[in-house]
Amino acid sequence: MKHLFTVAAIAAFLFITTTSNANIYRVGYSGPKKNNVDFTDLNDAVNACSTNPNKPDTIFLFPGTWSADYDRKIVTIGYGYYVDTATLGTGANNGLQNIIGNLSVTIQLGEAVQGCVFEGVDGLKLQCYYYPTDNITIKRCKCYIDFRNTVQSNWKILQSEINLQASFGAQLDQMLISNCIITDFVTDLSTSQSATIVNNIFTGNWYDPSFVFKNNVFLLDYDGELTSTSTYEYNVFVGKIAGGINGSHNKINQNKDAIFTGYSSQKKLSNDARWQLKKPNSPAIGSGENGIDCGIYAAGSLYPYRLSGIPAVPSFYLLEAPSSTTGTGPVYQITFSVKSNN
After folding, report:
1. What are the DSSP calls for 190-244, one per residue?
2. Furthest CA-CA distance within the chain
3. Using CA atoms, how far apart are residues 342 and 334, in angstroms rounded to an integer?
4. Which of 33, 83, 105, 127 could disulfide-link 38, Cβ–Cβ 3.0 to 4.6 Å?
5. Which 8-state DSSP code applies to residue 43?
């Protein structure tokens, strides 16, 4: 008898068996339901979660459209993105996930929310409109982040595909953005901000108040001068820069088709596999600080990118067990395979 376990299912098992006094809740799970575990509304699952920040509960999201207001520390886990080959065809990555279906999640972060973790969530929209938040981690998500009016401190955005908008005086303080595909990056230039932005790929526009940019690849022209209070070191620019750059060791006007395995022509690559560097002569290879590569996949970088944002929890992907046994003793031969997903 063979079974294929989803990442989310086995992750729930691991958390349940290894985390004391923490609960696991599922939203939109299509299998047999369990009382006090399964919910059809995300807000109901949030209300069931503990308010103790030292022992946050976990919510696993399954396909569907969900929205909620978060007013406490919660770990939220999805099943990755670019995994539905039926919808995306060659744009998806085959064989990484057993769950298929679209996921759309809108979260409003409320007052005094700190320490929330979002991992492996597709279609994530985070709204930070009214309250300052601290120590939020976004890892391996495909997300739109909308900051307005408030100060957001010590965020980590890692190994994700993001569209980030900060407006109406929103301030980013001590933010780290690492190994991400950045489709748009618009920040309010009127406020004092600080962020370290390292080993990313910028496919859309960006603005640069008081940030440190290292080991990134920028694909568009920049109409102004990069001589603000930001610093640019060891970056690769495809487009032209109208003025000077505040920094050194940058490469300008590089051939975009020479950098990646699939830029102008995506070929048979997924929407995120196309950003792997073209070997052996990509101008981004070895061009980063201390000789590491620029871009999201760089070995030796802080958080090398992982295909499809599969969450970093172990998963059983194969189990072989007999449906019956013979003999007098309770002896069963079981074979299983485990993937770490780190």
Report:
1. TS---EEEES-EE-S-B--SSEEEES-EE-S-BSS-B-SS-EEES-EESS-BSS-
2. 82
3. 25
4. 33
5. H
End-to-end CA distance of the chain: 28
Does residue 16 register a pLDDT over 50?
no
d(CA 146, CA 143): 10
Residue 144, pLDDT > 50, answer yes
* More confident call, 4 vs 204: 204
Q: How far is CA 104 from CA 23, 96, 277, in A?
A: 23, 20, 30
Q: How many CB atoms lie within 10 A of CB 55?
A: 13
> Structure tokens of 324?
């019956």
Q: How many CB atoms lie within 10 A of CB 36?
A: 8
* Structure confidence by residue, pLDDT tens digits, 155-165: 999 999 999 99
Which pLDDT score is estimated for 208?
A: 67
Residue type, 130: Y
In this structure, which amino acid lies at residue 203? T
85's enclosing H/E stretch is: helix 85-88
**The pair of three-digit structure tokens given for residue 243, joined into one six-digit string:** 């003025």
Mean pLDDT of all residues in 236-251: 85
CA 121 – CA 105 distance, rounded (Å): 8
Question: C-alpha distances in angstroms, 92 versus 61, 119, 161, 229?
Answer: 19, 18, 14, 39
Element (H, E) at 134: strand 133-134
Please answer whether residues 204 and 217 qualify as being in contact, where contact means their C-beta atoms are separated by less than 8 angstroms: no
pLDDT at res. 342: 75
For residues 291 and 281, what is the distance between their CA atoms, to the nearest angstrom? Answer: 14
Nearest to 79 by CA among 7, 2, 129: 7
State the amino acid at position 224 in one-letter form. Answer: G
Residue 10 parent element (H or E): helix 7-18
Distance CA 133, CA 30 (A): 33
Q: Are the C-beta atoms of 152 and 132 separated by less than 8 Å?
A: yes
